[in-house]
Amino acid sequence: MTSDTRRVWLTTLGCAKNQVDSDKLSAVLDESGYVAAASIDEADVVMVNTCAFIEAAREESVDTIIDMETAKRPDAKLVVLGCMAQRFGMQVTEAFPQADAVLGLDRYGELVGTLDQLTGWQPVRLNRSPMDILYTVRRPTLTTPYAYVKVAEGCDKPCTFCAIPLIRGKQRSRPPVNIRDEIVELADAGAREVVLVAQDLAAYGRDIGAPGGIEHLLEFVSDVDGIEWIRLLYLYPREIRPALIAGMTGNPRVVPYFDLSLQHANRQLLRAMKRPGDGERHLDLIGSIREADPAAATRSSFIVGFPGETDEHVEELADFLQHAQLDWAGFFPYSSEEGTPAALLPDPVPAEEAAERLRYLMSIQEEITAERNAQTVGRTLRVLVDGLEDGRPYGRSYREAPEIDGVIEFDTGKPGDMVDVYIDASYGSELAGTVVD
Ligand code: SF4
Fold first, then answer.
1. CA-to-CA distance for 289 and 285, rounded, in angstroms?
2. At what angle are helices 279-292 and 242-249 packed, to 10 degrees?
3. How far is the centre of ligand 1, averaged over its atoms, from the C-alpha of 353 (Å)?
């Protein structure tokens, strides 16, 4: 490595929260003189920000590390970051002797120093405590008119299937001012929508005694110039209090989009998951949301194949879907996670049976989503233009979250514009329309 700059390539896996970590690490490296490489073979350092949430995610992380090792220049350094490095640091180091460094989340403060040592380059040395990454407000140049903002790290909930508390620790909320500063930075960088994320978003602020929690935060950040929409993801059902519903449906800057992580409809299974509610209580919650705003959009995630799940439980969930009429839903096969209480439960569901149940429930929800979409034909929706595909603009209304829901195609507009679109057709999870003045 002879040039007087050092180029870094970063591949990110997993959830939006991991993407935010990568953005912040990139900003810290940029501040320290490192440059983002335009391609892997140009990079002096190749980094993989891994995910370890479930088995499938770990397999993808392993494959990606191997791919990066193959694709990089022989003299370039390979660095493994993220949840797999955090949770299985030693095993990753042993499994990948070709990795030059394995840094878990709580060692991110050492990243710059580690890269300086690996590349033999030391223009600027900035030691950062691990928590700086969470509080760092700087973000690299935006590539979309929306951006995720992580308002807290970790989780205090006892869900028996989930390894996240083992990886990301107890909940640590950022002070409201720190979050607002980041949103101002993002607005200045061209963001029109911010998507607030955390493992347990609706419990925001409880650990720091932030008065009024998430409800107060929404008020505090909803007057940032340039930001048209604030969206919330990952709402734990029991934390969705009437005040939060009012705060989301009564604030014109907050989109009435409720991402409910209900996980199942059967009471017995939910108790074994240490999750609240049941099908009836879930319907009451959805009813109170629609009472506050009949046009509110709803999404939920569900786990299929949890130990002890029977065909009757699956039918109960199928029936719940028909009654709930959610706009969107995601279904995930249960993954037995080492160190979680659920991994010790009896009556595991065979993988192919779980896969069959997943296909069955997804097919039911696909029809519901298509029907909910068809009901928007004839409406005019405010739309954020996300990009162009073959020269044709596409975007989302309040009803669609980025990257997980459908999109709307229409005839005119450039990325970052807010336009009014008359919806004249629906195609399953996608919509099409015409921009109206
Ligand atoms: S609330 Fe979410 S992140 Fe927290 S333990 Fe439960 S599933 Fe995991």
1. 6
2. 40
3. 25
Residues with Cβ within 8 Å of residue 158, at least 6 apart in sequence: 274
Residue with tokens 């939060």: 244
In ligand 1, which atom is closest to the CA atom of 199?
Answer: 3
Q: Is the dihedral of CA 379, 384, 388, 393 positive or negative?
A: positive
First-to-last C-alpha distance (Å) of the chain: 55
Given a cut of 90, is residue 346 above it in pLDDT?
yes
Q: Which of 236, 239, 274, 303 is the best mutation target for the ligand 1 pocket, counting ligand atoms within 8 Å of the beta carbon and taking the most?
A: 236
Task: Name the pLDDT band for 123 (thresholds 50, 70, 90).
Answer: low
Confidence (pTM): 0.92
Q: Say yes or no to pLDDT of 234 above 90.
A: yes
Contact 436, 294 (CB under 8 A): no
Give the domains, in start order, of the chain with CATH numbers: 7-119 (3.40.50.12160), 133-374 (3.80.30.20), 380-436 (2.40.50.140)
pLDDT in tens, 293-335: 999 999 999 999 999 999 999 999 999 999 999 999 999 999 9
Predicted pLDDT at 416:
97
Residues 6+ positions from 380 with CB-CB distance below 8 Å: 420, 421, 422, 423, 436
Determine how β-strand 408-409 pairs with β-strand 172-173.
unpaired
Q: Is the per-residue pLDDT at 130 higher than 70?
A: no
